[in-house]
Amino acid sequence: MARTAIVTGAARGIGAATARRLAADGHAVAVLDLAEDQAETTAKTIREAGGTALAVGADVADETAVAEAVDRVAAELGAPAILVNNAGILRDNLLFKMTADDWDAVMGVHLRGAFLMSRAVQSHMVAAGWGRIVNLSSTSALGNRGQANYAAAKAGMQGLTKTLAIELGRFGITANAVAPGFIETEMTKATAERIGVPFEDFLAHAAKEAPVGRVGKPEDIAAAVSFFCSEDAGFTSGQVLYVAGGPRA
Ligand code: NAP
Protein backbone atom coordinates (compact mmCIF):
# COMPACT_ATOMS: atom_id res chain seq x y z
CA MET A 1 0.00 0.00 0.00
CA ALA A 2 1.29 3.46 -0.89
CA ARG A 3 1.94 5.68 2.14
CA THR A 4 3.48 9.06 2.84
CA ALA A 5 7.06 8.87 4.13
CA ILE A 6 9.40 11.48 5.57
CA VAL A 7 13.15 10.93 5.36
CA THR A 8 15.33 13.45 7.21
CA GLY A 9 18.80 14.40 6.01
CA ALA A 10 17.78 13.12 2.59
CA ALA A 11 19.64 15.60 0.35
CA ARG A 12 22.52 13.13 0.02
CA GLY A 13 24.10 9.92 1.28
CA ILE A 14 22.09 7.29 3.12
CA GLY A 15 19.05 9.58 3.41
CA ALA A 16 18.93 10.21 -0.35
CA ALA A 17 19.27 6.48 -1.13
CA THR A 18 16.54 5.71 1.41
CA ALA A 19 14.20 8.34 -0.06
CA ARG A 20 14.77 6.88 -3.56
CA ARG A 21 14.19 3.34 -2.27
CA LEU A 22 10.95 4.20 -0.42
CA ALA A 23 9.71 6.00 -3.55
CA ALA A 24 10.54 2.92 -5.63
CA ASP A 25 8.56 0.89 -3.04
CA GLY A 26 5.58 3.04 -4.06
CA HIS A 27 5.47 5.64 -1.31
CA ALA A 28 5.16 9.42 -1.67
CA VAL A 29 8.33 10.79 -0.07
CA ALA A 30 9.04 14.07 1.72
CA VAL A 31 12.75 14.70 1.25
CA LEU A 32 13.67 16.80 4.28
CA ASP A 33 17.02 18.50 4.76
CA LEU A 34 18.44 21.75 6.11
CA ALA A 35 18.44 23.44 2.69
CA GLU A 36 15.32 22.97 0.56
CA ASP A 37 17.23 23.50 -2.70
CA GLN A 38 19.55 20.59 -1.83
CA ALA A 39 16.62 18.40 -0.83
CA GLU A 40 15.10 19.26 -4.20
CA THR A 41 18.00 17.48 -5.96
CA THR A 42 16.88 14.16 -4.45
CA ALA A 43 13.18 14.96 -4.94
CA LYS A 44 13.80 15.73 -8.63
CA THR A 45 15.57 12.39 -9.14
CA ILE A 46 12.58 10.61 -7.62
CA ARG A 47 10.07 12.49 -9.81
CA GLU A 48 12.18 11.82 -12.92
CA ALA A 49 12.01 8.10 -12.08
CA GLY A 50 8.21 8.35 -11.97
CA GLY A 51 7.79 8.69 -8.21
CA THR A 52 6.19 11.32 -5.98
CA ALA A 53 8.41 13.57 -3.88
CA LEU A 54 8.33 16.89 -2.06
CA ALA A 55 11.43 18.81 -0.97
CA VAL A 56 11.16 20.33 2.50
CA GLY A 57 13.75 22.57 4.17
CA ALA A 58 13.92 22.26 7.96
CA ASP A 59 16.37 21.89 10.82
CA VAL A 60 15.27 18.76 12.73
CA ALA A 61 16.62 20.25 15.97
CA ASP A 62 14.27 23.27 15.69
CA GLU A 63 10.91 22.56 17.35
CA THR A 64 8.94 25.16 15.36
CA ALA A 65 10.53 24.22 12.04
CA VAL A 66 9.73 20.53 12.65
CA ALA A 67 6.07 21.25 13.45
CA GLU A 68 5.75 23.42 10.32
CA ALA A 69 7.50 20.84 8.13
CA VAL A 70 5.25 17.98 9.28
CA ASP A 71 2.14 20.15 8.79
CA ARG A 72 3.32 20.97 5.27
CA VAL A 73 3.94 17.31 4.41
CA ALA A 74 0.50 16.34 5.73
CA ALA A 75 -1.14 19.12 3.66
CA GLU A 76 0.80 18.58 0.41
CA LEU A 77 1.58 14.83 0.36
CA GLY A 78 -0.80 13.30 2.89
CA ALA A 79 -0.56 12.29 6.55
CA PRO A 80 2.90 10.85 7.24
CA ALA A 81 2.83 7.11 8.01
CA ILE A 82 6.56 6.42 7.71
CA LEU A 83 9.39 8.37 9.36
CA VAL A 84 13.09 7.74 8.88
CA ASN A 85 15.22 9.72 11.35
CA ASN A 86 18.43 9.83 9.34
CA ALA A 87 19.73 13.43 9.66
CA GLY A 88 23.12 13.43 11.31
CA ILE A 89 26.34 15.31 11.86
CA LEU A 90 29.81 14.56 13.20
CA ARG A 91 31.82 16.72 15.61
CA ASP A 92 34.59 14.18 16.34
CA ASN A 93 37.36 14.88 18.81
CA LEU A 94 39.15 13.12 21.64
CA LEU A 95 37.42 13.80 24.94
CA PHE A 96 40.02 16.28 26.24
CA LYS A 97 39.59 18.41 23.10
CA MET A 98 35.81 18.03 22.67
CA THR A 99 33.92 21.25 23.36
CA ALA A 100 30.50 21.50 24.96
CA ASP A 101 29.29 22.89 21.62
CA ASP A 102 30.56 19.73 19.86
CA TRP A 103 28.56 17.68 22.36
CA ASP A 104 25.38 19.78 22.14
CA ALA A 105 25.39 19.99 18.33
CA VAL A 106 25.54 16.20 17.93
CA MET A 107 22.91 15.56 20.60
CA GLY A 108 20.75 18.26 19.01
CA VAL A 109 20.60 16.80 15.52
CA HIS A 110 20.53 13.08 16.30
CA LEU A 111 18.57 12.80 19.55
CA ARG A 112 16.57 16.03 19.87
CA GLY A 113 15.91 15.84 16.11
CA ALA A 114 14.64 12.25 16.24
CA PHE A 115 12.55 13.05 19.33
CA LEU A 116 10.95 16.16 17.78
CA MET A 117 10.24 14.45 14.46
CA SER A 118 8.81 11.32 16.10
CA ARG A 119 6.59 13.38 18.41
CA ALA A 120 5.35 15.48 15.49
CA VAL A 121 4.39 12.53 13.26
CA GLN A 122 2.98 10.20 15.91
CA SER A 123 -0.43 11.91 16.05
CA HIS A 124 -0.92 11.20 12.32
CA MET A 125 0.17 7.60 12.78
CA VAL A 126 -2.03 7.07 15.85
CA ALA A 127 -5.03 8.51 13.97
CA ALA A 128 -4.39 6.10 11.09
CA GLY A 129 -3.68 3.12 13.37
CA TRP A 130 -0.52 2.41 11.34
CA GLY A 131 3.03 3.72 11.38
CA ARG A 132 6.68 2.88 10.84
CA ILE A 133 9.54 4.75 12.51
CA VAL A 134 13.13 3.86 11.63
CA ASN A 135 16.04 5.51 13.42
CA LEU A 136 19.63 5.56 12.18
CA SER A 137 22.01 4.32 14.85
CA SER A 138 25.61 3.22 14.12
CA THR A 139 28.22 0.64 15.07
CA SER A 140 29.72 3.62 16.93
CA ALA A 141 26.99 3.06 19.53
CA LEU A 142 29.26 0.25 20.77
CA GLY A 143 32.00 2.83 21.44
CA ASN A 144 34.45 4.55 19.11
CA ARG A 145 37.59 6.56 19.77
CA GLY A 146 37.08 10.29 19.15
CA GLN A 147 33.31 9.99 19.13
CA ALA A 148 32.13 10.35 22.76
CA ASN A 149 29.30 12.61 21.58
CA TYR A 150 28.33 10.59 18.48
CA ALA A 151 28.59 7.19 20.24
CA ALA A 152 26.38 8.44 23.08
CA ALA A 153 23.85 9.85 20.60
CA LYS A 154 23.78 6.65 18.53
CA ALA A 155 23.37 4.49 21.68
CA GLY A 156 20.63 6.94 22.69
CA MET A 157 18.89 6.32 19.36
CA GLN A 158 18.62 2.65 20.34
CA GLY A 159 16.99 3.51 23.70
CA LEU A 160 14.63 5.94 21.97
CA THR A 161 13.72 3.26 19.41
CA LYS A 162 12.86 0.65 22.05
CA THR A 163 10.77 3.13 24.04
CA LEU A 164 8.85 4.27 20.95
CA ALA A 165 8.21 0.59 20.18
CA ILE A 166 6.80 0.02 23.68
CA GLU A 167 4.67 3.19 23.79
CA LEU A 168 3.34 3.17 20.23
CA GLY A 169 2.91 -0.54 19.49
CA ARG A 170 -0.72 -0.59 20.56
CA PHE A 171 -1.50 1.96 17.83
CA GLY A 172 -0.14 -0.21 15.02
CA ILE A 173 3.15 1.67 14.99
CA THR A 174 6.54 -0.08 14.96
CA ALA A 175 9.90 1.49 15.72
CA ASN A 176 13.22 -0.05 14.73
CA ALA A 177 16.81 1.05 14.28
CA VAL A 178 19.38 0.37 11.59
CA ALA A 179 22.98 0.58 12.77
CA PRO A 180 25.31 0.95 9.77
CA GLY A 181 28.99 0.14 9.73
CA PHE A 182 31.28 1.98 7.32
CA ILE A 183 29.25 3.46 4.45
CA GLU A 184 30.81 5.41 1.60
CA THR A 185 29.25 8.90 1.89
CA GLU A 186 30.23 12.54 2.35
CA MET A 187 30.29 11.85 6.11
CA THR A 188 33.05 9.23 5.89
CA LYS A 189 34.83 11.37 3.26
CA ALA A 190 34.89 14.26 5.76
CA THR A 191 36.33 11.93 8.42
CA ALA A 192 39.14 10.87 6.06
CA GLU A 193 39.91 14.55 5.36
CA ARG A 194 39.91 15.40 9.06
CA ILE A 195 42.45 12.72 9.92
CA GLY A 196 44.52 13.45 6.79
CA VAL A 197 44.10 10.08 5.02
CA PRO A 198 43.29 9.95 1.27
CA PHE A 199 39.68 8.74 0.94
CA GLU A 200 40.71 5.82 -1.31
CA ASP A 201 43.11 4.53 1.38
CA PHE A 202 40.45 5.01 4.06
CA LEU A 203 37.97 2.99 1.97
CA ALA A 204 40.52 0.23 1.28
CA HIS A 205 41.32 -0.09 4.98
CA ALA A 206 37.62 -0.22 5.96
CA ALA A 207 36.97 -2.85 3.26
CA LYS A 208 39.79 -5.02 4.62
CA GLU A 209 38.37 -4.79 8.15
CA ALA A 210 34.84 -5.84 7.10
CA PRO A 211 34.14 -9.61 6.99
CA VAL A 212 32.38 -9.24 3.60
CA GLY A 213 35.50 -7.52 2.21
CA ARG A 214 33.92 -4.28 1.06
CA VAL A 215 32.55 -1.04 2.45
CA GLY A 216 28.83 -0.36 2.51
CA LYS A 217 26.88 1.68 -0.03
CA PRO A 218 23.94 3.90 0.95
CA GLU A 219 21.67 1.43 -0.91
CA ASP A 220 22.70 -1.35 1.54
CA ILE A 221 21.18 0.70 4.35
CA ALA A 222 18.15 1.75 2.31
CA ALA A 223 17.30 -1.93 1.76
CA ALA A 224 17.22 -2.61 5.51
CA VAL A 225 15.12 0.52 6.14
CA SER A 226 12.74 -0.58 3.39
CA PHE A 227 12.12 -3.89 5.18
CA PHE A 228 11.34 -2.18 8.50
CA CYS A 229 8.89 0.14 6.67
CA SER A 230 7.09 -2.70 4.89
CA GLU A 231 3.65 -4.18 5.63
CA ASP A 232 5.43 -7.48 6.37
CA ALA A 233 7.41 -5.98 9.25
CA GLY A 234 4.37 -5.31 11.44
CA PHE A 235 5.46 -7.81 14.12
CA THR A 236 9.08 -6.60 14.13
CA SER A 237 9.52 -3.77 16.61
CA GLY A 238 12.12 -2.36 18.99
CA GLN A 239 14.94 -4.07 17.08
CA VAL A 240 18.41 -2.86 16.18
CA LEU A 241 19.75 -4.29 12.94
CA TYR A 242 23.51 -3.92 12.44
CA VAL A 243 24.18 -3.56 8.72
CA ALA A 244 27.94 -3.59 8.77
CA GLY A 245 29.19 -6.39 6.56
CA GLY A 246 29.70 -8.54 9.64
CA PRO A 247 28.65 -8.80 13.29
CA ARG A 248 30.34 -5.42 13.79
CA ALA A 249 32.72 -3.56 11.54
P1 NAP B 1 25.77 12.77 5.25
O1 NAP B 1 26.23 12.38 3.89
O2 NAP B 1 26.61 13.73 6.02
O3 NAP B 1 24.27 13.29 5.14
C1 NAP B 1 23.61 13.78 6.28
C2 NAP B 1 22.53 14.72 5.82
O4 NAP B 1 21.85 15.20 7.01
C3 NAP B 1 23.07 15.95 5.08
O5 NAP B 1 22.34 16.18 3.91
C4 NAP B 1 22.90 17.06 6.10
O6 NAP B 1 22.64 18.32 5.54
C5 NAP B 1 21.65 16.58 6.84
N1 NAP B 1 21.51 17.27 8.12
C6 NAP B 1 22.48 17.58 9.01
N2 NAP B 1 21.98 18.25 10.05
C7 NAP B 1 20.65 18.40 9.80
C8 NAP B 1 19.59 19.02 10.51
N3 NAP B 1 19.80 19.64 11.68
N4 NAP B 1 18.34 18.98 9.97
C9 NAP B 1 18.12 18.37 8.78
N5 NAP B 1 19.08 17.76 8.08
C10 NAP B 1 20.34 17.78 8.57
O7 NAP B 1 25.61 11.49 6.21
P2 NAP B 1 25.39 9.92 5.88
O8 NAP B 1 26.72 9.28 5.89
O9 NAP B 1 24.47 9.75 4.75
O10 NAP B 1 24.68 9.47 7.24
C11 NAP B 1 23.26 9.43 7.40
C12 NAP B 1 22.94 8.87 8.78
O11 NAP B 1 23.55 7.59 8.94
C13 NAP B 1 23.45 9.73 9.93
O12 NAP B 1 22.55 9.68 11.00
C14 NAP B 1 24.75 9.05 10.31
O13 NAP B 1 25.11 9.33 11.62
C15 NAP B 1 24.37 7.59 10.09
N6 NAP B 1 25.51 6.70 9.87
C16 NAP B 1 26.37 6.89 8.82
C17 NAP B 1 27.44 6.01 8.66
C18 NAP B 1 28.43 6.15 7.54
O14 NAP B 1 29.41 5.38 7.51
N7 NAP B 1 28.26 7.05 6.59
C19 NAP B 1 27.64 4.97 9.57
C20 NAP B 1 26.75 4.82 10.62
C21 NAP B 1 25.68 5.69 10.76
P3 NAP B 1 23.85 19.37 5.26
O15 NAP B 1 24.62 18.77 4.13
O16 NAP B 1 23.15 20.63 4.88
O17 NAP B 1 24.64 19.47 6.52
Automatic annotation (TrEMBL):
Annotated GO biological processes are: monocarboxylic acid metabolic process
Q: Where is the Ketoreductase domain?
A: 3-181
**Pfam families, alphabetically?**
adh_short_C2 (PF13561)
| Molecular function, one GO term | oxidoreductase activity
| Alphabetic keyword roster | NADP, Oxidoreductase
* SMART domains for this protein: PKS_KR
Protein family per UniProt:
Belongs to the short-chain dehydrogenases/reductases (SDR) family.
Official protein name in the record? SDR family oxidoreductase
Give the species: Glycomyces paridis
